[in-house]
Design goal:
Elements (H helix, E strand, L loop, with lengths): L4 E4 L9 H10 L5 E6 L11 H7 L7 E6 L7 H7 L3 E4 L7 H10 L3 E6 L17 E5 L14 H15 L4 E5 L4 H10 L3 E4 L1 H4 L6 H10 L2
Parallel strand pairs: 1-8, 2-3, 3-4, 4-5, 5-6, 6-7, 7-8
This protein binds D-xylitol-5-phosphate and zinc ion (ZN).
Zinc ion (ZN) binds next to strand 2.
Length: 220
């Protein structure tokens, strides 16, 4: 089975040493850097904004995989693009015009992703699939790291994999939440090619990052 790309979520990093942490996961084999942006409104937690993304940009050349859990989305796209985001993913529930938001991300020269909450059906993608670069299946309810994987999302991963294959387009299928060695293997078997991992990457501290990331890749 193909080895997945690993996108460590810096939500689980030491926020007092974020630049150092990003360099450490880069050196440890992270493929992308997952940045969880929360607004205390769309989700019940507050994290970081474009200023932090900009400050981190010089610390790695790996793609910044920016997951926006904010409402509204559109007024902030330009700031995240300018700060150095490579992939910008948003939740269609966070605004009335998901198609317009995708077009706005593409117009900024960035890759566009759609995040599906656990209760959001794959069908949401029907009229977006021809324009997007990534689908993010949330395997926890967004807002916090360290939650348990919701097994029903495996069926959604399978459904999204079929839609992507049918489209014939190059679209990443990323899974986010509760990823560990066991759930990683289930997600890859269901069709995922990118795994977000916060807790599982950062557990044990910097000396363990390389082994943690290798274990997740090996689960594929
Ligand atoms: C949840 C975030 C996730 C989260 C993953 O809202 O989108 O990226 O940090 O954390 P773990 O891997 O600890 O479940
Ligand atoms: Zn995330």
């Amino acid at each position: 089975m193909a080895r997945p790309l690993i996108s460590p979520s810096i939500l689980s990093a030491d926020f007092a040493r974020l630049g150092e942490e990003v360099r450490a996961i880069d050196a440890a084999g992270a493929d992308w850097i997952h940045v969880d942006v929360m607004d205390g409104h769309f989700v019940p937690n507050l994290t970081i904004g474009p200023g932090v993304v900009k400050a981190l940009r010089p610390h790695t050349s790996k793609p910044f995989d920016v997951h926006l859990m904010i409402e509204p989305v559109d007024p902030f796209l330009e700031a995240f693009a300018a700060a150095g985001a490579d992939i910008i993913t948003f939740h269609p529930e966070a605004g009335p015009h998901a198609h317009r938001t995708v077009q706005a991300i593409k117009a900024l020269g960035k890759q566009a992703g759609i995040a599906l909450n656990p209760a959001t059906p794959a069908k949401m993608l029907d009229y977006l699939i021809d324009d997007i670069d990534l689908v993010l299946v949330m395997s926890v309810n967004p807002g916090f790291g360290g939650q348990s994987f919701i097994a029903s999302q495996l069926r959604k991963i399978e459904a999204v994999r079929k839609m992507i294959d049918k489209s014939g387009r190059q679209i990443h299928l990323e899974v986010d939440g509760g990823i560990d060695h066991d759930t990683a293997a289930l997600c890859v078997a269901a069709g995922a090619d990118v795994l977000v991992a916060g807790t599982a990457t950062f557990k044990g501290g910097p000396d363990h990052y390389a082994a943690n990331i290798a274990a997740l890749k090996g689960a594929g």
